[in-house]
Amino acid sequence: MPTCGKTLQANHHRKTLLIEPADLKTPADKMKFNADVSSSRRKSRKAHFDAPSSIRRKIMSSALSKELRAKYNCRSLPVRKDDEVRIVRGKYKGREGKITQVYRKKWVIHVDRVQRDKSNGATSPIGIHPSNVVITTIKLDTDRRAILDRKDRKKSAKVSADVEMVD
């Protein structure tokens, strides 16, 4: 089996590597699809925590309940004020209420009646991450309906394409 020697200069030490011709090819499973997107953990975290409000909106999405999922043919939506949610994870699991505030700066939502009593007698809302809730009632307006229609069209087009392939 022919091998070719390749000299590598690193840290002022010379190393001779034996590289097989088969090793020169990059396997498809290790290739990146987009060179502009980094795989670095630290860059990903920086991008996440420095994200602008428009991107935080999309990241702060919640799953829809089974009934809504069946009705709108959509799995998740960005949360908004006046949606009704059920908390499914954490200390407040099982509680239901209306979203009173979407606090994008802190990555949390405030749910009606999920609050803490402070020592001075005042109440303070407790932040819940949107991934820990399920949307039970959607506040629909024209923009939200357009988003649902667009998502539904994508799914129905994919399903019809699958059906055509079977024929």
- Please state roughly what percent of the residues sit in beta strands, choosing from under 5%, 5-15%, 15-25%, 25-35%, 35-45% or over 45%: 25-35%
Low-confidence stretches: none
Strands in their spatial order, largest beta sheet = 4-3-9-5-6-7-8
End-to-end separation in angstroms reads 49 Å
Separate helix tally: 4
* Secondary-structure arrangement, i.e. CATH architecture of the domain at 62-139: Roll
Folded structure, characterized:
The chain contains four helices and nine strands, in the order ββααβαββββββα. Strand 6 and strand 7 (108-117) form a beta hairpin. It has helices spanning 41-49, 53-59, 66-72, 142-166, and strands at 4-10, 13-19, 61-64, 76-78, 84-87, 96-103, 108-117, 123-128, 133-137. The strands form two sheets. It has a seven-stranded mixed β-sheet with strand order 4-3-9-5-6-7-8. It is 29% helix and 32% strand. The protein has 167 residues and is of the alpha+beta class. The chain starts with a strand and ends with a helix. The chain has a domain at 62-139: Roll (SH3 type barrels). The radius of gyration is 25 Å and the shape is flat.
